[in-house]
Write a structure and sequence with these properties.
This protein is mainly β. The chain has a single domain, classed as Sandwich (Immunoglobulin-like), CATH 2.60.40.420. 0% of the residues lie in helices and 39% in strands. A 5-stranded mixed beta sheet has the order 3-9-8-5-6, with no helix packed on it. Strands 2-1-4-7 form a 4-stranded mixed beta sheet, with no helix packed on it. The protein is globular.
C-alpha cells in the first residue's frame, strides 16, 4: 500500500512511438521521465515530419518546431522541457500539420516528467 503523500511512480525512461502509413501515432498519448528518450518508428518509406508544441521541444529540433524523420527507427530524442506536455503531429515530408488539430493527425501528446508533487497537510 502506498504511503500518504508519496510521490507517484516515475514514468518510463524511454518511449517508442510508431507512425503508420497514414501518419497516425501509436501510442497517441505517452509518458517519459525528465531527460528520458523518445524513439519514433516511421512506416512511410519517404519518412515524415514531426511538428511540436512547444517548438524546439527536443534536442536537435529545428527552430521552426519540427523534426525530420527517416523511414525506420529514429532517435533517441531527448525532451528539452521538464514536467510539461509536448503536443505533436506527424505528416509527410515537405508538409505541415498543426499539433493541436486531430484531423491532421495532431493531438498526440508526450507527458514529460511528473510535475510538482502536491504537499500534504
Amino acid at each position: 500500500m502506498a504511503e500518504h503523500g508519496a510521490a507517484p511512480a516515475p514514468q518510463a525512461a524511454s518511449l517508442e512511438v510508431t507512425i503508420d502509413a497514414q501518419y497516425r501515432c501509436d501510442p497517441q498519448h505517452g509518458e517519459v521521465n525528465n531527460s528520458g528518450e523518445v524513439y519514433f518508428n516511421v512506416s512511410p518509406s519517404n519518412g515524415c515530419l514531426i511538428h511540436t508544441s512547444p517548438a524546439q521541444a527536443f534536442e536537435d529540433e529545428s527552430s521552426n518546431g519540427y523534426i525530420t524523420l527517416d523511414n525506420g527507427r529514429n532517435g533517441p530524442y531527448v525532451p528539452l522541457v521538464d514536467n510539461q506536455t509536448i503536443t505533436y503531429c506527424a505528416c509527410a515530408s515537405g508538409s505541415t500539420c498543426d499539433p493541436f488539430t486531430p484531423k491532421q493527425t495532431g493531438g498526440n501528446t508526450i507527458k514529460v516528467g511528473s510535475g510538482p508533487v502536491p504537499h500534504s497537510k
